[in-house]
C-alpha cells in the first residue's frame, strides 16, 4: 500500500520559506502570485494491507515524527 502525507504549516504560522519563494517569483517577473505557503510531501510504501490499520499507523507516524502537531497540519492519502 502506498501512502502520501502532505505536511504544511497551519494558517497563522509564519512561513519565511514561502515568503522567500513569493519574493523570488516576483523578481523573476511572475505577476499576480499571492500568498505562498510551502510544505513537504512524504511518500511511504507500507506492508500493511488493512486500510484501517494503515490509517492508524500513519496517524501515529505523523503525530510522533513526521509532523509537528503544534504548528503543522497534515493530510494522508492511501492507494492500494
The helix tally amounts to 2
Structural class by helix and strand composition: alpha+beta
The biggest beta sheet reads: 3 strands, antiparallel
Strand residue percentage: 25-35%
Radius of gyration: 16 Å
Uncertain runs:
none
- Lateral strand order in the biggest sheet: 2-1-3
Shape: elongated
- How far is the first residue's CA from the last residue's CA? 5 Å
| DSSP summary, beta strand count | 3
Which series of helices and strands comes N to C? Answer: EHEHE
Mean pLDDT: 96
Q: Helicity, in percent? A: 25-40%
Characteristic terms for this protein:
single chain, 80 residues, alpha+beta
What does this structure look like?
- This protein is an alpha+beta fold and 80 residues long.
- Helices cover 35% and strands 29% of the residues.
- The chain is elongated and about 50 Å long.
- The N and C termini lie close together (5 Å).
- The mean pLDDT is 96.
